[in-house]
Design a protein that fits this description.
With 322 residues, the chain is α/β, with parallel strands linked by helices. Helix content is 40%, strand content 19%. It has a six-stranded mixed sheet with strand order 2-1-3-10-4-11, sandwiched between helices. Helix 1 (5-13) crosses helix 11. The chain is globular and about 65 Å long.
Length: 322
């Protein structure tokens, strides 16, 4: 997967090629946002709240549709193949878009062309969490515990982002970690609370925070380059393993060829919603650090992540849930 500057420019400016008249008076009917995460997780809650606020400003319903499955590829492909009429958008992670060709083995999907960025919303680190009954109380003791498991320590997670984070950590820390896939954040947290899985990676969520407060789960470390207010009280893994950073960027995308008016008004309405008083604090509760970004910036991040994953796969075996 090699992408040049021309690919990025096409991805960012592709909307301009639709005649503006095709989207005149947008929106004239409900707008659909496809979310490639299961219902109930923090991404689902954030998307539905933002959609509700956008509906009020647009005068048309913004309807959220969950399309999970295929390690996140199902929802992304649904948007890539949707009619580019300005009434279908995608909320997902940049990493999710980048990983579609790896998950599906479909090399016709181009992360910089098959869907185009509309606007970035924010980013989040992942936390490394354990069941409170585990012997791990911090990251060094977690590594000691993991290295004592002859068959490797199971690490739960909801999607290929976590699978890569687990594989890179195993290689970097010289220990055996076995990725156990779940269909999203909510199922893996439920399994951890039940004791079915002893450790997992996840973005922060209210359920996790409440479970930590109740003494049922324990936060061990965070995957950001520095300590994060989203997962307070723990050190970044990068302090112990230099260079280990696994931040996740979230944003809205659309089918290529979307009418310029639709993309522009969607983006400006989203900007207004994200600037509402208390929005930063509200999103932080669901593990998202508010960082609005334009289409060009998201295209740049996408190209960067393509190269990062390419280098990772050269040295790290990842099965993507197979």
């Amino acid at each position: 997967m090699l992408y040049n500057r021309r690919s990025i420019l096409i991805a960012v400016t592709g909307a301009a090629f639709w005649p503006a008249a095709w989207a005149e008076g947008w929106p004239r009917k409900p707008v659909r946002v496809i979310l490639n995460f299961p219902a109930g997780g923090p991404g689902d809650v954030v998307t539905r709240y933002v959609a509700q606020r956008m509906s009020a400003l647009l005068g048309q319903q913004v309807i959220v549709e969950n399309r999970s499955g295929g390690a996140g590829a199902v929802g992304i492909l649904a948007v890539a193949n949707a009619q580019a009429d300005g009434y279908t958008f995608l909320y997902t992670t940049v990493t999710g878009v980048v990983q579609v060709p790896l998950i599906t083995k479909d090399q016709t999907f181009d992360p910089l062309r098959s869907v185009i960025p509309v606007m970035g919303v924010g980013s989040t680190p992942m936390g490394l969490f354990v069941h409170a009954g585990s012997p791990a109380t911090d990251f060094p003791s977690f590594l000691d515990w993991a290295r004592k498991q002859a068959a490797g320590l199971d690490i739960g997670g909801g999607g290929p982002i976590v699978e890569i984070a687990t594989a890179v950590l195993a290689r970097s820390a010289n220990t055996k970690l076995v990725y156990v896939p779940f269909r999203g954040t909510a199922p893996v947290v439920q399994a951890a609370l039940a004791g079915d899985i002893k450790a997992f990676f996840s973005t922060p969520s209210p359920v996790i925070a409440e479970s930590i407060k109740a003494g049922k789960l324990r936060a061990i470390a965070v995957t950001s380059a520095t300590a994060s207010h989203l997962i307070p009280g723990v050190e970044p893994i990068a302090r112990f393993i230099p260079g280990y950073v696994q931040d996740i960027n979230f944003g809205f995308f659309a089918p290529p060829g979307i009418p310029a008016e639709a993309a522009t008004r969607f983006g400006s309405t989203l900007t207004t919603v994200l600037a509402e008083p208390g929005m930063r604090e509200r999103l932080a509760v669901f593990g998202l650090s508010l960082q609005p970004a334009g289409a060009e910036e998201i295209a740049r991040i996408t190209a960067r992540d393509v190269e990062t994953i390419r280098k990772t796969l050269e040295t790290t075996p990842v099965k993507f849930g197979e």
